[in-house]
Design goal:
mainly alpha; two-stranded antiparallel ribbon; 1% strand
């Protein structure tokens, strides 16, 4: 019966997903459109001379230019080569004197949906990839929260909140979304492995880690794995297994990680070779670390962007051409997006009112707040931006990691809220019963 209830709950989640995706992707399903910003090339004077260019005016969203100028072009090159029997191209000869295609990682040619380029057009694959990411994010958020003993309804609530959250949707055409969608899978596998480090659990962890590397954004993969394994470490500490059990579970996490590297080796090795020959390491990447290890003056304007947690269009929107970030530090609509629903926000914060006794609730909340504090460069948390690897990463994107942990916390809050309502109903029934009994005796 327990397994049947789980399948029934998963069925409800899939039904909710089908409805939401049907509404969100209606132009894809009904009109045959694709999720590619095809209007952007016509902002170029050369293409604007085309008589048909007027149908693409005005520009819908210039912030999506990477999707058409880079990812779509790379996928078109790969699709053309594979569909004409030339195999997967390793090299892009059309940029300057040429550049690696597989080695640049962001082409993500081995990410499962992108393998369909062998048979389908890049535009169709872009739409299928968006659907794949949302579905994977929802299903594994549900499974992760269920493994933490959140109710089926609370898990569906958390899954929908994350799957349609700001970061996952605004980055949907970018490889960032590919990687972010794997975070709940990795966390679910970590949670299972710290409890039962068997072959199945380690294999699932390997698949999750491998998919994260194949997703096409190494920086986001680093963030995903860093927080996933900090989560695993905290779970091990508070579970307090014996020395042998601790060694076995730690070994399981390491084995799963190595398996993941093996799964993604076809992508990791070319990227590592390209990285070692690039200027990225020599120039320190896109380091966020300043001269002060504990303080950055950017924290106040970053904190101001918190208003978009409730009002995502507070500073405008690139679609309506009125986006305006009033501070000097670089920001754009995608980078500041942490919206995942007003009700989930209320549930996440409301869980604190019920003073949860489960340690895992505090771990999830703590990691959510740490990710946000580092992203906003709050005083003291600036230290993280000077740590190895973090020092060459754009850690403002830890906001994406925050949203997943916050959505999971909202699942706990959902359960706590329903429990409080049920307790109130029981108390009301008790008081009513006492009153009726007294009246009957009187």
């Amino acid at each position: 019966m327990g397994l049947l209830r789980e399948y029934r709950a998963l069925g409800w989640l899939l039904l909710c997903l089908a409805i939401c995706l049907g509404l969100l992707f209606a132009p894809v399903f009904v009109q045959g459109e694709v999720i590619v910003p095809g209007d952007i090339p016509y902002t170029n004077a050369f293409w604007a001379a085309d008589p048909g260019a007027t149908q693409f005016s005005p520009l819908k969203n210039g912030l999506l230019s990477d999707q058409i100028n880079q990812f779509f072009v790379w996928h078109s090159l790969a699709s053309d080569a594979m569909q004409n029997g030339r195999g997967l191209p390793l090299w892009n000869p059309y940029v300057f004197t040429g550049q690696p295609l597989v080695g640049n990682a962001q082409s993500a040619l081995f990410y499962p949906p992108n393998l369909l380029l062998r048979w389908f057009s890049p535009g169709s694959v872009a739409s299928l990839r968006g659907l794949f990411n949302i579905i994977v994010a929802a299903i594994f958020t549900f499974l992760f929260t269920r493994s933490l003993q959140v109710s089926a309804r609370g898990s569906i609530f958390a899954a929908i909140a994350f799957a349609f959250s700001g970061p996952l949707i605004v980055w949907l055409g970018h490889p960032h979304s590919n990687v972010l969608a794997t975070l709940p899978l990795v966390l679910w596998a970590v949670e299972m492995t710290v409890h039962r480090p068997q072959i199945r659990e380690i294999a699932v962890l390997g698949i999750g880690v491998g998919l994260s590397f194949l997703g096409g954004h190494p920086e986001t993969t680093f963030h995903v794995l860093a927080f996933a394994f900090v989560y695993g470490g905290l779970r091990l500490v508070f579970l307090r297994p014996g020395i042998k059990a601790m060694a076995a579970r730690t070994g399981g996490l390491l084995a799963g990680s190595l398996l993941g590297l093996g799964v993604a080796a076809i992508q990791v090795l070319p990227f590592a070779t390209f990285l070692l020959q690039s200027s990225t390491l020599a120039d320190g990447g896109r380091s966020m670390g300043g001269s002060n290890w504990l303080y950055s003056s950017e924290w106040l304007p970053n904190l101001a962007s918190g208003v978009t947690a409730i009002f995502p269009n507070f500073f405008g929107n690139p679609v309506t051409n009125n986006y305006n970030w009033p501070f000097a530090n670089f920001q754009n609509y995608n980078e500041q997006s942490i919206y995942f629903g007003v009700l989930p926000w209320a549930m996440m914060l409301g869980v604190l009112l019920f003073r949860p006794r489960k340690v895992v609730v505090w771990i999830v909340l703590g990691l959510a707040l740490v990710a946000l504090a580092v992203a906003w460069r709050l005083p003291g948390f600036e230290l993280v931006n000077h740590l190895p690897l973090f020092s060459i990463s754009l850690n403002k994107r830890l906001k994406m990691i925050f949203v997943l942990f916050a959505a999971v916390a909202s699942g706990f809050g959902f359960d706590a809220f329903l429990a409080a309502l049920n307790a109130k109903d029981r108390n009301r029934g008790l008081f009513l019963g006492i009153a009726v009994a007294r009246r009957w005796r009187w």
